[in-house]
Each structure stands twice: as C-alpha cells, then as structure tokens.
Amino acid sequence: MDLRQIRYFLTVAEERNITRAAERLHLSQPPLSRALMDLEEELGCTLIVRGKRHVTLTPEGLALKRRGEQILALADIAKTEITDVKKGLSGTLYLGHVDSNGPSLAAEWISSFKKEYPNVTYNLWCGTVDDLTYRMKSGLLELAITMTPLNTEQLDGITVYSDSWAAIIPGSHPLAKAKKQTVSLKDLVDTDLIISSRHSREEEIRSWFEPTGKEPRFIVKTAHSSNASKLVDQNIGIAIFPASVAKNISADSNVVVKKIVPEVDVDYILSWDKEKIPSALASKFIDHVRNLYS
Length: 294
Fold this sequence. Notes:
By secondary structure, the protein is α/β, with parallel strands linked by helices. It has helices spanning 3-15, 18-25, 29-43, 59-87, 102-116, 129-137, 174-177, 185-188, 199-208, 225-233, 280-292; strands spanning 48-50, 55-57, 91-97, 120-126, 143-147, 155-170, 182-184, 192-196, 217-222, 238-242, 255-261, 265-273.
C-alpha cells in the first residue's frame, strides 16, 4: 500500500463515484478500478460496494478512510518539515491562552522558542477555556493554554503547570486584615463573590460550597483576572481565581491574595484539537514545550 493508492481511494470515497473520481485524478476509469482492486487484494477485504450510480464504503473502507486521511496529512507534514530544515522554520503560530498564568507561560515559551526559530511570528489571543476551545475547533487557533477541567472528547494536550485557588480580597475587608494566610470556604460563603465567566468553572466552584449547606453569591462573572482585581480594589466583592493571578495584580492595588483551604488544584494545559493533526510549526512548538518540562 503506497500513498498513490491511498490518494486514489480517498478521492473515490469523497466523490462516491469512480467515474467522477477518475476525472478528478485525470485518469481513465480502468486504471483507477485496477488500483482499487489491487488495494483490496493486498488488504484482503472489500473496501467499497459498487452500485449503479455511486459506491458505498464498507466498515473496512470507513476505517481506511479515517486512517488514510491521517497518513496523507502526516506525509504533507513530513514534506513541510524537510523543507523547513532546509530554509529554517517560519510562519505564524496562532496561540491562545487563558488569563491568570497563561500570559507568563506564553511569554516564557515564545522567548525560548524564538532563540531556536527566529523567523516565526506569533498571533496571541486571550479568553476563557470555552472561548479557546471554540476557536481551536473553528481553526482560528492551533494551540492554546487551557485549564482543567479539560474537554478530553475534543482536546488533547500536555500538563505544564499546577496551581491552587486563591481569594483576592479588598484590603479593607476583615479577612484581608486577619493574621491567617489562608481563607476557608466557610469564610467566603456569605460574601459577594467574583468568579470566572466559564460555565463549567461556575459549576465547579458552586460544588465546593455544598458541604457548608449554603449557596454562594456570585455577583460578577468575568473572563479576565485583571478585571477581577480591579473590581476587588473597588470593594465590590472577593474574587476566586488561581493563586498565580497575584503576579498580574498592580502593586498599587489595595487587595490581598490568600490561598483557599482545603486546597483545590488546577492544572494549566497546552492543548490542541484532537481531531486535527498539528502543523509542522505547531508540532515543533509542542515538542519544544514538552522538552521544557521533561
């Protein structure tokens, strides 16, 4: 089985008609039919059922279609990578990231990757995990720094950083002035809370408070921790965000960051659409990040 045979088979599968597939491939029908029969003989199974007007894929044919598309995509990536080796990797990487520690991770990775591949340019986009997932599925982003919980049905990825949750508290609030460096859920349940606008995050945080027997009061939902810290600075409420958000808070803000107990971990993940094969550039970037944490 070679790439030519796979390409022939996939064209027939797309056209669902051998005559149209032959025209598209600039072949006469007999050589195409012969190539398909040779492929079926080699694999020892029937791949297509030939009807009067169109062909239908058998279960084996559907399996080959799925794998064949991946094989051709990988072959194209291999060609691109070989070309890149000759002339040096270039192109634009469309990278998304969540707020909190996302910008810092993106900056660190780009800084080290740039030393190895100086001709690459970058297009960055910040949003919630839901926003980033949608943009990856739509082809607007190829990679994104997301956070758990990860939708494993749609995304694949590698864990790059673990964080814990913290409360961003107005400086004038009694919890901020207390000597304890942590706050409990019991401390927070009767306060006005500011949380991420990600729907699954809201449900997760709500579940934390179930043991208290009380419903938390979410008064503001925002995609960005910078917005949350400004809201807290104006004494609007207490924000619940990953502890690493502290590095993004302005030094002149009158807020205090304290970890929430019991601790709940949240992981940052370099993610990509599991139904798409990353480009040569994205693959290089994934390998680069993976090596940073190996």
